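tool_call: predict_structure(chain=1)
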Amino acid sequence: MSKNIIICGVGGQGTVLAAKVLSQAAIANGERVLSAETIGMAQRGGSVVSHVRIGEDIYSPLVPQGQADVLIAFEAAEAVRNIAYLKQGGTVIVNKKVVQPVTASLSGKAFDENEMIDYLKKVAATVVVVDTDEACRELGSSKVVNMVLLGAASRAGLIDANELKAAIKQLVKPDFYELNVRAVDWGK
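tool_result:
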């Protein structure tokens, strides 16, 4: 049985590292993984979408639209933008925070996180909303949003938290290991 996962956010949020940790955890568990990123103007806060496919019956690294089991969104606007990837009955794990794009700031129109979360709840079977601002305050770092959301994914049954922690140990500098593990536990 395969798992199709979309991880989306904006440049600088840690989506690519999250995809690598998730992939490494699955590989360490003996599973076959294909993954790819589609990055647009990521250094300037542009959209970043990572595709992670786990299982024997996969032949392309890109998740087809309507086939993602899980959508992990680092901010609500990106969740809405990428909802077409989610299959019927799929799960959305979403950071409730909205990163206002430059176009919204310039036009004087702001994206409303509550409207976006309400929309997601109408179109997805399960929506897990995570307050990463609260997590970052409690953990003392704004750089752990990715691991908090992966922790929430483990709570939702996507992957075992211990497998995530082992992957973090392999991929993250030792000085940041404990902080990232605490972030996974917070999300869980």
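agent: The beta strands are 3-10, 33-39, 47-54, 68-73, 86-95, 126-130. Proceeding to next step.
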